[in-house]
Amino acid sequence: VQLQASGGGLVQAGGSLRLSCAASGRTFGSYVMGWFRQAPGKEREFVATVTWSGGSTTYADSVKGRFTISKDNAKNTVYLQMNSLKPEDTAVYYCAAKYSAIEVKRPLTYDCWGQGTLVTVSS
Q: Tens-of-pLDDT digits for all 123 residues of the chain?
């Protein structure tokens, strides 16, 4: 599986961005797709996940109600719509894929990663 993340940029606090993660290489019917982020000097942290087959989602408490993860099976693409952005959302955002639906919040359980896209939120 190859993942290509895009859509990052500079936005003012309160603004919105939509990240995309295009997947290729094999079928994804059993995969869980996740978004993670890593701020400077901090560990990579879970943001949200979605399952390819059923579309079930999970979110970190810090982004609930502001971020929405979705997928387009026809395009093999996962999105992260980010609204009401805050300066503390500033980070490199990574998409990732895993075959198992357990421990979806743990980065080390993911099988492959995209290259990351930088999101900067100014105050």
A: 889 999 999 999 999 999 999 998 876 566 899 999 999 999 999 999 999 888 899 999 999 999 999 999 889 899 999 999 999 999 999 999 998 888 999 999 999 999 999 999 999
DSSP of the chain: -EEEEE--EEEETT--EEEEEEEESS--TT-EEEEEEE-TTS--EEEEEEETTT--EEE-TTTTTTEEEEEEGGGTEEEEEE-S--GGG-EEEEEEEES--SSTT-GGG-SEE---EEEEEE-
- At 31, which amino acid appears? Y
Task: Read off φ and ψ for residue 100, nearest 5 degrees.
Answer: -90, 145
